Amino acid sequence: MRSVKCKFLSVFLFLLVARSVWSVEPLPISKAVNKALAYSPYIKAMKDGELAAAEKVGEARAMKGVKVSLGVSDSRLNSPMMAFGARLNQGRIDMSDFSPSRLNDPEYINNLQVGAQVALPLYLGGMDKHAVAAACQGVKISEQDSVKASEDIIFKTIEIYLGVVLARESVAVAEKACQTSQESLRNAQAAVEAERSVESDLLQAGVHHSQNEETLLRMKNQFALALESLATIMGEPSVQEYDLNMPFLQQECTTCQDLPANLLARALAQRPDYLKVARQSQALDHQEKLARGITRPRVIVGAVAENNRDGLNSSNQSNTMLFARMDWNIADGGEALHKARGARFQKGQMQNMEKALADQIHLEIRDAITNINNALERIRVSKLASEQSTESLRILRDRYSAGLAIVSDVLGAETSLFSHRMNHLKALYDYSISRARLKMALGELNLEHCDILKNPENQ
Question: CA-to-CA distance for 138 and 48, rounded, in angstroms?
């Protein structure tokens, strides 16, 4: 009976572990990026900005649209001129209303007026045309803001995702270092017991192992914090149920042969922040012309219809009027002139900022290419150093066991091996980050152009 219970418990534990393993969902870097893009409140804010900018276009076009207004007023008055006019509009004038005494001192009169006006601007001095053009540029500016926001979220997600992988692999390296120092501690213990070594060797090995354990704890803490950062940017409560399956250590690393000068033209044609500045310059050109239109003539045609009566139950009379009006603000104290000049100077400011941004983009491209090639060399050197350190540690251990080496040499070799392995991981991380930075510098950090996001191994 006891053996049956043990077998049942073993099967239950196996199924529980298997379920936890099977429930782990692969999380390639492309999926993490898509989740971050779908969640990001920052991107949603940029999309709302696009909608607001589109409404500005409609607002500008409405300047030339038909304007219809409806008004209702009820007044009681005894102003001589207004009282006579009200009775005239109501159609209730008779000979007694022309009496001088009544004209000079009329009785109070009620006037209920319902009126409607339709106005159609025919010419607005070009203000409407330039307002629409400036608003259209505003829409394109908002679109570039959305693209830039997406690139920022993509890069941040890549950076955090790779940081999680780096932290995870660092924990693995630290665990190996602890296993190695634990073995050295046992060897030192055996050497002391065999009287081939002194007590201080054992103490050194113990201190060294404690330092490795402390490093492992620190690496695990960094790994936990990195997982929290990834969960936050993805909008997930936790990422413990995911398996970050990016082949971090097996990725293909290639050098960047492109010349920065050749890549600059490509970047300027698609960098969202650069295109935004160019759009702002064009919008300010229209803003200048819009300001100059303030002092140009404006022509409006329309019609007015109104109905006047003494009260709801009294007789009434309707009146209509067609009109054409020209308004010309010949002098406004220089307000329009200063607005136009301000827009022109702002346009010059944007043009200079455009040139400065082009220089910055060129520098970002050169910096990214330099870091890619530098990381490749570091990957090669650190890998070779790790292999050599592994062999050096093996030899020193054999020599220590034979009494031909001291324990500090062995511990130093362990430290060197740990350092070279960590350097190799950091070089791989820097290579991937630099690749993403180059794509961002070129304005190509998206799901279509970024290799790290469309690699079949990461899907």
Answer: 13
Element (H, E) at 320: strand 316-327
Q: How is 344-365 classified by DSSP, letter by letter?
A: HHHHHHHHHHHHHHHHHHHHHH
- For 195, phi and psi rounded to 5 degrees? 60, 30
State pLDDT tens for residues 40-90: 999 999 999 999 999 999 999 999 999 999 999 989 988 888 888 888 888
pLDDT level of residue 2 (50, 70, 90 thresholds): very low
Check: CB of residue 384 under 8 Å from CB of residue 436.
no
- Residue-range domain boundaries for the chain: 24-65+125-294+335-458
Position 19 pLDDT exceeds 80: no
Beta-sheet strands, E only, within 315-459: 316-327
The residue with tokens 């030192």 is: 188
Gap between the Cα atoms of 354 and 335, Å rounded? 29
DSSP notation for 247-302: -TTT---------HHHHHHHHHTT-HHHHHHHHHHHHHHHHHHHHHGGGS-EEEEE
Q: What fold does the segment set 24-65+125-294+335-458 form as a domain?
A: Outer membrane efflux proteins (OEP) (1.20.1600)
Q: Give the pLDDT of residue 15.
A: 41
The pTM assigned to this predicted structure is 0.82
In angstroms, the Cα distances linking 347 to 283, 284, 423 are: 8, 6, 49
Q: Please state, in angstroms and rounded to a whole number, the distance separating the CA atoms of residues 183 and 111.
A: 106
Nearest-10 crossing angle of helices 335-401, 272-292: 170
Whole-number Å distance between alpha carbons of 36 and 31: 9
CA dist., res. 125 & res. 455, Å (int): 56
DSSP secondary structure code for residue 107 in this structure: P
